[in-house]
Specification:
By secondary structure, this protein is mostly helical. It is built from four helices and no strands.
Length: 121
């Protein structure tokens, strides 16, 4: 009984909270594009698009031209997100995660573990 309880506690502790993924893969053309990371990009870039009065992109977990175009638009129209190249690297990842602090998937939420961020974020 004690072994089972100890194992359950250890397993719960291992889940813990999300942490920044300094080494998370970039997202965009030419990258492996984890479907969860792509969904996070689509979801978070839609926060910007809605605020800017622009049409949202599909949140379908598939990287394509509409998602790439939305990322370029985000990069071109927000500060400190890197070049407007359609690639989600550390600066764009941080920008997406920080854009809408009220979004439960941003900040330290679900998407925090899927997008690349700068060291020390």
């Amino acid at each position: 009984m004690t072994v089972v309880a100890t194992t359950a506690i250890a397993a719960a502790a291992a889940v813990g909270t999300a942490s920044a993924q300094v080494g998370a893969p970039y997202v965009g053309d030419g990258y492996s594009n984890n479907k969860n990371a792509v969904w996070c990009v689509q979801h978070l870039v839609n926060d910007y698009r809605r605020a800017a009065g622009k049409a949202a992109v599909a949140e379908d977990s598939v990287w394509g031209p509409q998602t790439r175009s939305a990322v370029i638009d985000f990069q071109a129209n927000t500060d400190n997100t890197g070049p407007a190249d359609g690639i989600v690297g550390p600066l764009t990842g941080r920008g997406l995660l920080n854009y809408d602090a009220t979004d439960i998937y941003a900040g330290h939420g679900y998407c925090f573990g899927y997008l690349p961020t700068p060291s020390g974020y």
